[in-house]
Amino acid sequence: KAGVTQTPRYLIKTRGQQVTLSCSPISGHRSVSWYQQTPGQGLQFLFEYFSETQRNKGNFPGRFSGRQFSNSRSEMNVSTLELGDSALYLCASSPWGSGGGGEQFFGPGTRLTVL
Amino acid sequence: AQSVTQLDSHVSVSEGTPVLLRCNYSSSYSPSLFWYVQHPNKGLQLLLKYTSAATLVKGINGFEAEFKKSETSFHLTKPSAHMSDAAEYFCVVSDRGDDKIIFGKGTRLHILP
């Protein structure tokens, strides 16, 4: 089975712009979670989608949004970019969801740099 | 409520010596516990998981962890460190009665030649 793929792998944007990141989960996985990873804050949970519905949400401003399509692929959007949004954005998929004791499978991440 | 604490942000060991990365957790239900490893500029890879079977869990690359309910700990060990083990390690807790998964802040493992 192919693993979790994320595109693009690297992205450079300027303040005020918006960005869309994409994640394709492992075939058959219905849950996709997104995380932001920075040196200062570590790994922080953004949100989880399961069967096209947002199931959990972390403590991030409304500039961060996401969606999931019927084929389980997910996109994450960040509007009005700020310097502090520079981070590695990780996507993880699982068959049944991030909670409930199941493991997650991570993609390689998208490195976003905001100038 | 769940929480996980990785007791060391950095650990340095010499190649060939044992590795110990410490993790304490709290959980209201029956926890599942995981250790993930992240090499530089890569995603996270599952090392091992505990899901209420054997308390001593063996993972990939010679790592193992022991679930100790009385101490609420799930420490990660390896008998002999290798240079390729240099990475960041995350302890993770997930309750089977809950929808949430909680990551520790990570422990960066340095291997000295």
Structural description of this entry:
The complex is a heterodimer of chains A (115) and B (113). Chain A has 115 residues and is mainly beta. Chain A is built from no helices and 11 strands. Chain B is mainly β and 113 residues long. The relative contact order of chain B is 0.34. In chain B, a hairpin with a 5-residue loop joins strand 10 (87-95) and strand 11. The chains are: A mainly beta (115), B mainly beta (113).
Defining key terms:
heterodimer; A: 115 residues; mainly beta; seven-stranded mixed β-sheet; four-stranded antiparallel β-sheet; B: 113 residues; globular
Biggest beta sheet summary of chain B: 6 strands, mixed
Structural class based on helices, strands and sheet pairing of chain B: mainly beta
The mean pLDDT of chain A is: 92
Element-level helix/strand string of chain A = EEEEEEEEEEE
Order of helical and strand elements of chain B: EEEEEEEEEEEE
Radius of gyration of chain B, CA atoms, in whole angstroms: 13 Å
Question: How many E strands of chain A?
Answer: 11
What is the largest interface, and how many residues per chain? Answer: A-B, 26 and 24 residues
User: What fraction strand of chain B?
Assistant: over 45%
Number of helices of chain B: 0
According to DSSP, the number of beta strands of chain B is: 12
Distance between the termini of chain A: 37 Å
Which consecutive residue ranges of chain B, at least 5 long each, have pLDDT under 50? none
Gap between N and C termini of chain B: 41 Å
Q: Characterize the quaternary organization of these chains.
A: heterodimer
Helical percentage of chain B: under 10%
* Total DSSP helices of chain A: 0
Q: From the helix content, strand content and strand pairing of chain A, which structural class follows?
A: mainly beta
Q: Strand-residue fraction of chain A?
A: over 45%
Give a quick summary of the entry:
The complex is a heterodimer of chains A (115) and B (113). With 115 residues, chain A is mainly beta.
